[in-house]
Amino acid sequence: MFSGLWLRLTLRYTFVFGLVLVAFGLATYGFVQGALYRGADEDAHLVTQGVSETVKVVGDRLTINRADFDDEAKEASLFHGVVALEVCDAQGRALLKHGAGFQLPALGRDEARTLIIENNPMRLHTDPILDHGRTLGYIRVVRPISDIERTLRGFAIALGGLIPVSLLVTFGVGAVMALQATRPIQMAFDRLRRFTADASHELRTPLAVIQTQTDVILAAPPRDEAALRRAFEPIQRSGKKMAGLVADLLFLARSDASSVEIQAIPLDFDELVEDVVEDHAAIARNKGISLTFEGDRVPLKGDPQRLQQLVTNLIENALKYTDRGEVRVRLTRANGHPHGLLQVSDTGPGIEAKHLPHVFGRFYRTNAARSSDKPGTGLGLAIVKAIALAHKGSVSVESEPGKGSTFSVRLPLA
Length: 414
Prior knowledge:
Layout: H1 2-52, E1 55-58, E2 61-64, H2 66-73, E3 84-89, E4 94-99, E5 112-117, E6 120-131, E7 134-144, H3 146-219, H4 225-256, E8 265-268, H5 269-279, H6 281-286, E9 290-295, E10 299-302, H7 304-320, E11 326-333, E12 339-346, H8 367-371, H9 380-390, E13 394-400, E14 404-412
Parallel strand pairs: 9-11
Antiparallel strand pairs: 1-2, 3-4, 3-7, 5-6, 6-7, 8-10, 11-12, 12-14, 13-14
Helix pairs in contact: 1-3, 3-4, 4-9, 5-7, 7-9
């Protein structure tokens, strides 16, 4: 699917750039052509100005002083490159011809135009002879433009060769750009696919429990209240699990959209952390784990409910994967930085290096965690990261297999 999208994007990039390149080439060719022709017309205009000085106006007629014209014709610089010259009246009747003896085309409205005479490209330039606003005649000059045409042909060949090469380069650049454009889409699609599969997996179990328990109750309704209560307890637990999962997913979705509402109020973070540790002391004792806390006073501005959820998720994660030893919670002010540093360390199995970059991902659980009997959805650490980022903080983890893990959260001080 994405290979087809990549190819379509590449071809579109190449097509659009090709159109721009062709348009630029045509515009450049037209500019060069116009500049060369204007130069030739300006040279022809200088000739007509010199010839006009030999033309006299007598009433409504033109007369030409042949001697003066011959003197002008002797100026090699004036008539350089001129193959034919003609002076005619307003009706186009020739009064004087000079140079090649070929017949010029009929008088037209164009001041300058290109002709093919005897298989040679020529430029015909025409200037009017005016007297008090009246046009009494015309001076027509013919100059060869073979050198201009050769220059234009060479330029056209250069452009013609440059455009295919540029399109090949554009195809390569477009392929790289298309790859960069489709890579985030593919990554987002892969994350969405994994998210859908993991969410379906997590919801399948409580839904199956609810469905099975409901079928049992409907098939053989309990006769006393105690039995009915026991029958509905799995349904209640499964409902709470799904409600918690949906709430977590909703929070993460809002964090993606940067719409998480954070109530930034002043609080003593150390007191909040200590309360959460005390709430989990009984769980630690039941597992035979030592849960300790030490910390400095760390004033923050943040959302107490979200920060409590952050600390709870870290401690529960540590207790879940620690079967013996201790869980240490430490809160300090980061040296040299205006941040509070919360560290939760355990003596659990640790995390392999290849898993460390992904532990804060949604639904991500290592193979050992998935294969064990430890409950969880894989959203706890993702929520920790989202809460920390919402408070303009950061999270990190250090771990060594067989020796435990340390999760660190840095939050800006008030």
